[in-house]
Every structure is written in structure tokens, then in C-alpha cells.
Amino acid sequence: MRMRRIGVCLAVAACAALGTPAVTGVGAPQAHAADSKVLRVAVTTAVASLNPFLAYHQADTEIGRMMYEFLTAYDQTDQHPVPGLAESWQVGTDKLTWTFKIRQGMKWSDDKPITAKDVAFTYNLMLTNAVARTANGNFVSNFDTVTAPDDTTLVVRTKQPQATMLALDVPIVPEHVWASKVDKLVNYTNLDFPVVGSGPFTLVDYKPDQYVKLKANPNFWRGKATVDEVDFYHYDNTDAAAQALIKGDVDLVSKLTAAQFDTLKGKDGITTNKAVGRRFNDLIINPGAQTNTRQPIGDGNPALRDVKLRQAIAQAIDAKTLVDKSYGGYAEPGSSYIPPVFSKWSTNQQRTFDLAAANRTLDEAGYRKGPDGKRLDKEGKPLTLRLIGDSGQPTDNPNGQYLKSWLGQLGIPVDVQLVSGDKLGDVTTAGNYDLSFSTWGVNPDPDAVLTLQTCAALPDAEGKSGTTETFTCDEQYDQLYKAQLSELDEGKRVQEVKQAQQRLAELATSVTFAYPDQLEAYRSDRFSSFAVQPNPGGVITGQNGYWGYYKAVPAAAGTSSGVTPTGLVIGIVVAVVVVAGVVLLVVSRRRKSTADERE
Amino acid sequence: MTNALSPEVVEPTRGAGRGTLRYVATKVGGALVSLVLVVVLGFFLFRVLPGDPVKTITRDAPVDPARLAELRAQLGLDDPLPVQFLRYLGGLLRGDLGQSYNYRQPVLDLILDRVGPTLLLVGTATVIAAALGLWLGVRGGWRRGSRFDRASTGIALLLWSAPTFWLGMVLLTVTGTLFPSQGIIDPATPPGLLPQALDLLHHLALPCLTLVAVIYAQYLLVMRSSLLEEMNADYLTTARAKGLRDDLVRRRHAVPNALLPTVTLIFLNLGMVVSGAVTVETVFSWPGLGQLTFKAINSRDLPLLQGTFIVLAGAVLVMNLVADLLYRVIDPRVRAA
Amino acid sequence: MTSTTPAAITWRRRRAAAATVWRQFLRDRGGVIGLAVLVLIIGLALLAPVLTDAAGLDPTQATGGRLQPPSGTYLLGTDELGRSVLLQLWWGARISLLVGVLATLVSVGIGTLFGVATAHFGGWVAAVLTRATDFFLVLPSLVLAIALSTVLDRGIFAIVLAIGVTSWPTTARLVRAQTLSVESRPYIERAWALGAGHLHVIGRHVLPAVLPLVFANTTLTVASSIIAESTLSFLGLGDPSAASWGTMLNSAMLSGAVTFGAWWYLLPPGLAIAVIVLAFMVCGRALESVLNPRLRER
Hints:
The complex is a heterotrimer.
Chain A: H1 2-35, E1 38-43, H2 58-67, E2 72-74, E3 81-83, E4 86-91, E5 97-102, H3 116-128, E6 143-150, E7 153-158, H4 175-178, E8 201-207, E9 211-216, E10 229-234, H5 238-247, E11 252-253, H6 258-265, E12 270-275, E13 279-285, H7 307-315, H8 319-325, E14 331-333, H9 355-365, E15 385-390, H10 396-409, E16 414-419, H11 421-429, E17 435-441, H12 447-451, H13 475-485, H14 490-507, E18 510-516, E19 518-523, E20 527-529, H15 547-550, E21 553-554, H16 563-598
Parallel strand pairs in A: 1-10, 15-16, 15-17
Antiparallel strand pairs in A: 2-3, 4-5, 5-7, 6-7, 8-9, 9-10, 11-19, 12-19, 13-17, 13-18, 14-18, 20-21
Helix pairs in contact in A: 1-16, 7-9, 13-14
Chain B: H1 20-47, H2 53-57, H3 65-74, H4 81-93, H5 107-142, H6 147-161, H7 164-174, H8 193-231, H9 234-241, H10 246-283, H11 289-298, H12 302-330, H13 332-336
Chain C: H1 6-27, H2 29-51, H3 85-121, H4 123-138, H5 141-151, H6 156-167, H7 169-183, H8 186-193, H9 198-237, H10 245-255, H11 257-260, H12 263-291
Helix pairs in contact in C: 2-3, 2-12, 3-4, 3-6, 3-7, 3-9, 3-12, 4-7, 5-6, 6-9, 7-9, 9-10, 9-12, 10-12
């Protein structure tokens, strides 16, 4: 009995010993949190590499954008090119020589001056070193020479006139840090904290798949950010991230689903942001896949080479219904190739859903109906199509079912198949599909998505290294594409880009049906507002820039950060339970052994 | 995939008259053969996965065909398969698991970073589950058919039957704001051993509880049934005849002997639990080996996949070997056989 | 009736043995309840096309709102596409059961083959087969299954193969042990002495003696296959157009049902898995203890 009493005393003492310092420790982080303003962001996509030359993934490049300033930036309001490291620029009469004026007096985060030499170093490294070209090589592939005659002047000579010279998404790195890394670039992780940079934030800590920590850079040329620190927390799924927002573990969450968004809408202390998306979802129709040597590949249904059939399919897609049903209303019905958020470039051409017209198109084109009401192809064989989608995309299943029902009403049976994203990539790359769902994000400069439809994007003779989205290869389109790329007069370029999109719509190899909204939410009890891009109606995260994080406005005093203390208290409780359990176990054993001895 | 609920998993070694040395040599040799097979399979299995690694890496970025070709050459994907295989073997012999396509870090470093969290999670869960399972198993087995026995066996089986990830999701929902839903430690936690340790415990609680709930049934059932087997043994009757008290008979005689199969089961299961941690780690965003493997599969990170595959299979191999050897050491009956 | 051909005698003996097994099984209350639950669920699953309208699974014909809580029209509420959760649960049983059973057939088939062959042939054949079994036993089965199901074409058969190919070694070990003990019995020696061939010994003597235990093991394997299926589907490897319970949970998570607090979407599939797995388990354990005298006391 005495042993037991001693055990209880021990347990109480242990609780007290564990509890006291922990409780006193609670005050410290809270006080700390009050005077340093930390923005905690949930990321659900993996951060892989923070070496700006190797970083491909969206999360990587977004953080890279915060660490390094580019030559030019995109405006927060309408995303037109604005000064970055370069304060002004001009192009020579030869249309090939670009002279950028680099702003004077800018400093890296280690107080060394930022000069045109750093910019020239970065571009020349990419021109000479294949590893440095890994992520952003396509921006410099048309560069002939890059020189820095003095600290404030950068001269770039291109091989061909290039309209995208103000859309060079290349992080500029400090020469004094990177000159010694050139030889082992492929193995360089760029994690020597604090990482010297020029952007609004400096990388100070990173644990893969756990968190990324950035501190405001006081040397940033626009001035120090409004928050002191931005922490990215990794979550394996958006539901956990949404939960964390409710709990107050993070302040900002993106990529929400409709259900999560609706839930968060009604919560106290949380504000939601429904933003226009810059991604299109489209149906791609195999027009006869081929390599760049014009060798046919894949097993696409040959009937789809007929543009009339493709157009009839396009007419049979009701974007409005898809948006309302599959996307729960959180998307814009798709029409043009370039989303309307880029109003300058988008044709905003509407496509009408008309099953009767589609049926007429098919009748006129000679697709007769068999006795069972099913269409026959021109050789008199029954026409059936396979539609392949991504099982990881929640909208692909319902979208597929709708398409199946609409095309069924045209007399074309459709077999819907959902496969993993990678498998889908394999199947479409090899041209082994009839119809497939696809999606692509669009940049402020439309060139990148326009190249996807050129003949040059077709795969090589071995069927590899293709970047084509749809296997479109059309002379007229290619001419329009080339014209816009070398057109330095913006007004004319806009016309050419729109004509290229119209041509694409006629070809009907890609039928855009939705631009999903970006759904975000933040703790408005900790942050009163964020800068969205474009403004209004735009996104906080995943911008073409750093505005969202840079201009985050912390809420006035009285921030509710009752989170850490609860956490610690729970930790204490868990610790106490464990300790008490161990103590009790030991005690009970001791007691029993004494009892045994007594017998 | 753990189908280890029947006590048959531990097979007594057959064949009489083999020396201990020969026994050990056979077991170690067998494990080595398996290891070689794992290394070979690790390479070829993942080469047939669909998805071009180069395309997966550049998924988010607009790149031109020339860049894709350059990247392919950089990663050595253009070389013929045998050349790639030899390079992989050569690297392995030098202890180099290659460079992750995605993280752009040595695979070995990435794996070493993740071993700790996984061991912490799986180790803690196994210790608690084994302790709980043994204790309940002994209590239930000793009074077979009692209400306690039926209830504890029933609850254990029910928990074992629930999918791990679902149990995790439900726990996460039910506990509301009490526990964090991500990671292993909060970077905002003040430095110092105590706050850090408490924060760690706070993060560990739910994933650990989930894992314990699912795995403790195995220990309970094995302990219970091997105790039942021992209870009919003659020596217990002798012990009782000597006038020893009931719970003394249980603790001094029955339990130590019944422990044998359970101890080996712990080692047999440990390796399995490591790879089974994939789902728990995914639900709780726990930065362990399972999560790393799953990410590697999703991003077609071939070197990383090979590395995690070898490590996971190697762990099971070693644990099986330990179980085999241990069984021989601690059970005199097997030694004599 | 009173036929005395050897075959008839064997048959009668086996029928009698089966009757004994059945009687003993009936004495195990847990096993009987498990069996009743199984019969009920399997019956409902088989009758789904008769009792319900599959059209409700088609998102284009869904009539409900997004994630509606349970009501008179939708007893278990609706999912993110406005379909009845109850209806999906009902049809999901078909997929989950089908995958579980087929995967088990693959697994037990391979396992029995390997187990019998290892024990029966001995020598280098046994050495190689044992090595192979041990090798598959150490492979991280979930990782292997994930890899396999990405290689194979999507659909339930990919999952079936992935589970079947990775879960057979335990059966193989069990069968091997049982075969060894059967083959050491005198009547097998007698058969050998009478000039029986391998086929005869295996087909007429070994298999009939081993199969009952294999059958008990099968029910346990179905249980773990159903869990394995749900895990693979949850990790996003299932086929959303043929939704199993695991796929439902995957959709629930993807669509944010947890945050929404849609318990009617989250709980039923998980509970259904737990219940059916438990039912298979108690049945299997009851059978095992009847068939394996060593276990009878448990």
C-alpha cells in the first residue's frame, strides 16, 4: 500500500515538473507572435527544389519568385509588364537589340550591390551551361549575346525579333554567390541559409515536405514587406489544410474544393476569396497523331481526322451545364483558348451548345445513322469513340458522363475511361486516344500556350520530347504563331494572337469548356486584406508575382493566437498521461511483487 | 495487407540435426539472395511504370522540345537500360543511391532525413500496441470466455477491420482543434528541449493512436492463443499442484513461455508496419519514409523510388532474419529440433 | 445409396466430415453472426440491380444538391455531385466484394500452387520456390501493389492483380506446412508404395486434406484484400467510374467532405468496410478453429 501511495506522489510530482515550465513557456511565443507578423500559408503541392535553375513545380517557382526579382515583373492590377530589376528598356531599330536600364542602388540581401553584371552572369550561365537551362532555358533559346557594358546597362541581342522580351520569367542570381557553384550546379540545393536573394523575402529555413520559412528582405528595392515572415506549411491534402485554417494553424489556404469553400464561407474569422482562374480545361480530339517527321503514331480513330466530325463534337458540349454541375458553379464556362482573365489576348468567342446543329453537321458530312440509330463512319462501320480522363481530377468523371450522354444523343457511343495522371500522359503522348481531357495554365504572355499547338511541338521520330497538347499541325496556324512571336507592335500582335485562336477553334482539336475558379480562404482575424492579381477578382496565391505575400496587411492588435497555448496544453496532457501510465505500471508491478513475496 | 492474424506466421524450422552455425548461415545466405533480388527488382519494376519522368518533372512549366531532350540527357535517361542498370549497381556498391529527379538532392540524404520520423512513429506505436496487446491478451486468455475477454477481443478485431486511413480521418475530425493535422514539429515552437519535445508529442499523438488501434489486435490474439496453448501444458498442472496461487502461475510460468511467438511476431511485423505507415503518414502529412515513397511513385522519381524500395524491403528482410535467429535463441525446443 | 465403390465411400466420408464441420461451426456464436451478416450483405449486393436503379449513379442524372445531409429522400444524404450516398454504398458493395473475392482467388491460387509444390517436390525445386516465397514475403506489398496498379490499365482488374500478386506468400507458407504434415502420414506412403504418381498423390490425397484449411484461410484473405482494395483506392488508384467503398472515401476526401462535416459521406463507407471485414474475419477464425484441431481450444 505504501508503495502505491509513493507512486501517486511520484506521478503528481512528474505532472507538476512537466507542467510548470511548459505553462510558463506558453507566454513567450505568444508575446513573440504579437510583435513579429508571421503569415502562415498552407501548400498542398510538393516543394521539390529551390535551386532556381532547376525548379519546375508551381510551388517551387512561386517561392523562387519571392526570393529573386526578375528583370521585369507583372503588374498587380492587369498583369502588363512593369519594371523589376530593370527600370526602363528600349528596342533598337533592328528589332533585335534590347537595352535594359538596371536601377541604381539596389542591394542583395547580403548588402552587396545588384548590378547589370549579375543579370548578364545569369543569362550567360544559361547560354553556356545546359544544367542552368533546365527550368527556364526556353526564355533564352533565341538569345544571341548578353552583355553588361556598365553596372546599369544590360544589352541583349536576339537571333530573331522576339515579342516576349518583357516576359522573361528568369530569376536573376547574385554572381558573387553563384560563380563558385557553376561546376556543380546539378547537385547544388541552394540551401545555404539565409539564401542571398533580391526579392521581397529571404529563404531562411526549409525542411522537405514539412515547411519553408522566409523572412522579409529589408533590402528589397520596393521596400520591406508588410509582414516579417512567411512560412509555408506542407499538407498532403487540401482537406487537412482547410482543417488547419479552421483551427488557426495557418492563415491562408488555396486550391480549395467547392465543398470546402462553402464551409469556410460561413466561419467566423475567415474570409473567402473566389478568384478567376488562369487555367483552361479542354477536351482534346485526336486529329491523327504524328511525329515531327510526319510519321503517323498511335491508334486514334481515323474518322476524327475529319474536321466536320470534330466540329460537331464541339457543338455538342454544353459548357454551362458542366460548370454548374461538375464544378459546382465555381468555374467560368469555357469558350476561347486563352482565358478571359487575360482580356487583352482572349477572343472571348462564345460557342453555342446546339445538339440539333451538331446532328445536322454530321448528316451533311455524310455520317449516316444505322438501323439502331448509331452513326456509321464514312466506311460504313459503326462509329464509337474512347474518352480518356484523369482519375485524380474530381471533375473528369462527371464531365465524362455528360459528354457520353450528349454524344450519345448524336448517335456516337462513347466509352469513358479514367486512368492515373501519368498513364494519361503516356496515352496522350503516344497518340493512343480518340478524346481526352486536358488542362493547362496560361501565363500573362500567351506565347507559351500558343506553342503547344504548333508543328514544332510534335514529338521526335522516336515519339519523345514532344510538347504538343493536341497533335495539331496546321500551316495557317503556324504562320500566325510565328508572326505574333516576332511582332513587336503590341496592337498587331494582339490581332495575330486572336486570329491564331480563331484558327484553332475552326480546327476543333481542342475544345475549351471551363476555366475553374481558384478558391482561397484566409484568417481575417489575423490578416485584414491581401493584394489580389488581377485586381479586382484575382488570386492571392499562385500569382505571376509576389504581390499577395508582399502586401499582406496584418489585422490590427488583438490577434487571436490562442492556438499555440492550446497546443502546448494538449502536449502537456499527452505527456502527463504517458508518464502517469508508465509510473502506474511500474508501481503496480512493484506492489504485486511485494504481495508475492508476502505469500 | 497484413495477414498475420493467425499464429501460423512463425514457422518452426524443420529438419533435425542441423547445427546452429549451419542454421545461421542458411538464414543469412537466404536473406542475402533476397536482398540481391530486391536490388534487381527495384531497378526494373519502376522502369516499366507509365509516365515519362521528364514530362512529370516539367508538368507545371511550359518547355520546348529541345529542353526536354536536354533534361533527358542530363538525367541519363537516354542511355540503354543495361548501361543505366550498371551505373545504378556501381553507385549502390559505393553507397550512392543516386540523385532524386525531383528534390535534386542525394537520395540517401532524403531517406536518412525520413527514417527518424518513421521510426519514431512506428516504434512508439509498436511498443504501445505490443504492451497493450500482450496485457489484454494475457488477461483475456487467462479467463477465456469471460465478458472482458469477449469485449476486448471484439473491440480489437473491429479496430483491426477498419481501414487505417479512415480511422485516421475520423480521429482527425472527431478531435477537432485539439491536435495539429500536419507534420512532426511546428517551426514556431520555441527552441529548448521541453517545448520541442511537447510539440513533438502533440503531433505524434494522433498518428500513433491510429496505428496502435489498427495493429494491437495482432499482439492480443497471438498472445491470447499462445497462452491458451500453454494453459493445457502439464507443467502448469504441476505448478498448480504445488499450491501456487493462480496469478503467480500465470505470471511466472504460463506468460513467459507464451511470450515466445509474440516476440518474434513483433519483429516480423515491424518491417510490415513500416511500409504500412504509408497511409497514416499520408493522412497526417507525417514526413516519413512512407510519405516519401508515395510521393516518389506519384512523381516518377525513379532513383528515389529505388532507394525507398530497397530500404523498405531491406528493413523487412533484416527484421525477418532477426525474428528467425531470435526464435532459435529464445526457444530451446527449436534449438533441439 | 449403398454403393461401395471407393469414390462413393470417399464422398460419403467427406459429406459426413462436412456435416461435422458445419455442426461445430454452428456452435461458434461469433462465426454464425458473421456468416449471417455476410449472407445479408452479399445478398443485397447481388440484388442491387433488382432493388435499385443504377441510373442514380450517373452524375448526369443526379437530382440532389451537393452534400445534402440525410433526409427522407436521401437516407444517407448526397455526395459532391448530388448522388445518393446510400445508393453508392449499395453498389459499392458489389465492387468491394468482387475485388476482394477475385483478388483472393488469385492470391490463394498462387499460394496453394507454390505451397503444395514446395512441400511435395523437395530438392532444388523446393529450394527455389521457398526462396521465391521468402522474397515476396519481404517485399513491401503496399508499395509493390501501388506500382503494379499504376503499370496495369486502370480498372478493377488492375487492383485485383496488384493485391493477388502481392498477398499470396502467407497462403503459400500455410499450405506448405500443412502439405508437409499430410505427406508424412502413413497412407500417403502407402499410396507411393502402390505406385501412385505425383498427380494422383497431390490431386487425390494432398489437396483434399489441405483444401479445408485453405478455405478457412481464404475467408481471412478476403478480409485483408478488401482492406487492401480500400487502401489502394483511397490513395487514388481506384476507378471512379466503378466506385468501391475505398473509392467513395477517396472522393469524399478529394471533395472536402471532412471539412464540410459531411459525416454521412465519410462514416458509412468506412463502417461498411469494417463490418464486412470483421464478418469475414470471424467466419474465417471460426472455420479455422473447427478445421484445425490445434486451434480448437481457442
